[in-house]
Design a protein that fits this description.
Blueprint: H1 2-13, H2 23-53, H3 58-64, H4 80-84, H5 96-107, H6 118-124, H7 140-164, E1 169-171, E2 176-178, H8 189-201, H9 204-217, E3 225-227, H10 228-246, H11 249-262, E4 276-278, E5 284-285, E6 295-296, H12 297-300, H13 304-314, H14 318-332, E7 343-344, E8 351-353, E9 355-356, H15 363-375, H16 381-397, E10 399-401, E11 407-409, E12 411-413, E13 416-418, E14 420-422, H17 428-436, H18 444-460, E15 471-473, H19 495-507, H20 511-527, E16 528-529, E17 532-533, H21 552-565, E18 577-579, E19 585-587
The chain binds 1-deoxymannojirimycin.
Residues 233, 364, 424, 493-494, 553, 557, 581-582 line the site of 1-deoxymannojirimycin.
């Protein structure tokens, strides 16, 4: 492009240098050419200039400018040396407030210019990731319970290895593997989802088998249709966590390779990604079932944590830019009663339907707001504002009290309440709990109480098998009960146990460990089969009908949260780690977010 302009300019400067051309003829042709070339170069300059003045010129600039030129601009007057300083966190958690006020100055230094250093990262953690003694509790009964959970993990893993190795999930009744169509031809979802669980449990032989499989057999050159959300939370999240915990560079290169393959999903008029992407061709489209080609809030809103870490590791802001663009749009768009509906058009950037839910289709969007704030070491103020704003709207419009006194979150359909809560929505007890401390001072206790009430309601739904249904209702005389046959199944989901784990860490109320143990016993009684664990079709029947599926999130989340529940708090301490929505731990790094987006 540049050469085509430069060549005629040379020609005009030195016409006589052209061999075999008479002076007069040359003069005539020269003047014609001169006018033509002048016109042409004017046109080209105009077009080229116009590209840079388009509203979202960042992407275009990226095409024309070198990578270094696209790095964020350094603000303030920090020296070059300052810019290269490693990102530091205070060693003393008490001094966190001080660190927050120091942040503005640190940020003035701009983006880190050195490649990511694992050694420096480890030095920034406040505590050792596995604690003093791998989180082993002093109390013998708790330790026994923890050992039981570890045994369940080993049992699930061994059976997966025997009958489904390399496939996505184990079918424990038929003793074979399941591939499914969520991961676009990627394999080994249970392996990727298990890496960090095996590692923190000290199941090292199993962990090494998993690591070797990733090294030798995880093929990222697949050509199928993948859910952007599922690949992100399980594969990207799983590989990131494995890297941060172990420092194995192989995980880092794999996750970088995979991250790049997800980028074309964002090539839409608004930058809101579509739900499905072909990992080979990069073509993307919306789910057939999503109304009017829309994208789903819980899907495009559950990328932030992983994508910010992809930027951190690669030192390439593109991933953070993609998720910041989503946030920008969500911030700007008008929200009915302050609520975020579940469906948004990636073409117009408008809501498509006014259905709001803290359960399926909405859930982890809210989770990622508060976790983005926490993961940035409390520097990402926008995420904080959006989270507490959303929570206020949820409290004003969705939070209800049942006649029997149970607090629950209803769903909202264009202003009409559906008095139903999904199992998925039960993560919100934990979410509100971890966000309580950073709310307005007069609201902190209230948030903690609300978190405890929601967790209590979800525990109430776990009856009589002591496992809970997919959805439960509070109308028609029901109190946290599935009134429809089709809502009675339990597929080894983690959300209720997830909330027990957070509430335990926050309050140390022994009831959460008791409730967790109830769940362990119920899983053993109703879901354990000869060759693994299986979901069940009816939580109200004491005779189990199994669904023949050991979900990968059982290994990644359910068993991990149970293990953490019975461990000391110094195993993956919350001062240093946030869990992505698939329970993969990602580190809190001071300035992680702001190093690419200074305030
Ligand atoms: C997991 O994949 C994640 O927790 C996700 O956010 C919701 N669904 C499953 C577990 O139920």
């Amino acid at each position: 492009f540049f050469l085509n302009i430069a060549q005629p300019m040379l020609f005009l400067r030195e016409p006589s240098a052209l061999p075999g051309v008479s002076a007069s003829g040359m003069g005539l042709r020269l003047s014609q050419k001169f006018v033509f070339l002048l016109f042409l170069s004017g046109l080209v300059t105009l077009c080229f200039g116009a590209l840079f003045f388009l509203p979202d010129s960042v992407r275009l600039k990226r095409i024309f400018l070198s990578k270094t030129e696209t790095q964020p601009v350094t603000v303030g007057s920090g020296s070059e040396n300052d810019a290269r300083e490693p990102l530091k966190r205070p060693k003393d958690p008490e001094s966190r407030t001080e660190s927050a006020s120091a942040k503005a100055t640190s940020f003035a230094r701009g983006a880190p210019s050195e490649p990511f250093s694992y050694g420096k990262f480890k030095g920034c953690l406040l505590k050792p990731p596995l604690g003093r003694d791998s989180g082993r509790p002093a109390d013998p009964e708790t330790n026994e319970r923890r050992e039981k959970v570890k045994e369940m993990m080993k049992f699930s893993w061994d059976n997966y290895k025997s009958y489904a190795w390399g496939k996505n999930e184990l079918r424990p009744l038929t003793r074979n593997g399941h591939i499914g169509n969520m991961f676009g031809g990627l394999r080994g979802a249970s392996i990727i989802d298990s890496l960090d669980t095996l590692y923190i449990m000290g199941l090292m032989e199993e962990y090494n088998d998993a690591k070797e499989w990733v090294q030798t057999s995880l093929d990222l050159n697949s050509n199928g249709e993948a859910s952007l959300f599922e690949v992100n939370i399980r594969y990207v999240g799983g590989l990131l966590a494995a890297y941060y915990l172990t420092g194995e560079e192989m995980y880092k290169s794999k996750v970088m390779e995979l991250g790049e393959k997800l980028l074309p999903a964002f090539n839409t008029p608004t930058g809101i990604p579509r739900g499905v992407i072909n990992l080979g061709s990069g073509t993307s489209w919306s789910w057939g079932w999503a109304s009017a080609g829309s994208s789903i809030l819980a899907e495009f809103g559950t990328l932030h944590l992983e994508f910010v870490h992809l930027s951190e590791l690669s030192r390439n802001p593109i991933y953070t830019e993609k998720v910041m663009n989503i946030r920008k749009l969500l911030n700007k768009i008008e929200k009915p009663h302050g609520l975020y509906p579940n469906f948004l058009s990636p073409v117009s950037g408008n809501w498509v339907q006014h259905h709001v839910s803290i359960g399926g289709l909405g859930d982890s969007f809210y989770e990622y707001l508060i976790k983005s704030y926490l993961m940035s070491d409390k520097t990402d103020e926008d995420a904080k504002k959006m989270y507490y704003g959303a929570l206020e709207a949820i409290e004003a419009n969705l939070v209800q009290k049942s006649p029997g006194g149970l607090t629950y979150m209803a769903e909202w359909r264009g202003g009409i309440l559906d008095h139903k809560m999904g199992h998925l929505a039960c993560f919100s007890g934990g979410m509100i709990g971890i966000g309580a401390d950073d709310g307005a001072p007069e609201k902190r206790q209230h948030f903690l109480d609300l978190a405890a009430e929601i967790t209590h309601t979800c525990h109430e739904s776990y009856t009589p098998t002591k496992l809970g249904p997919e959805a439960f209702r509070f109308d028609g005389g029901g109190e946290a009960t599935a009134t429809r046959l089709s809502d009675r199944y339990y597929i080894l989901r983690p959300e209720v146990i997830e909330s027990y784990m957070y509430m335990w860490r926050l309050t140390h109320d022994p009831k959460y460990r008791e409730w967790g143990w109830e769940a362990v016993e119920a899983l053993e009684q109703h879901c354990r089969v000869e060759s693994g664990f299986s979901g069940i079709r009816d939580v109200y029947s004491m005779t189990a009908s199994h669904d023949n599926m050991q979900q990968s999130f059982f290994l990644s989340e359910t068993l991990k949260y149970l293990y953490l529940l019975f461990s000391d708090d110094d195993l993956l301490p919350l001062e240093d780690w946030v869990f992505n929505t698939e329970a993969h731990p990602l580190p809190i790094i001071q300035h992680l977010f702001l190093s690419f987006f200074p305030p």
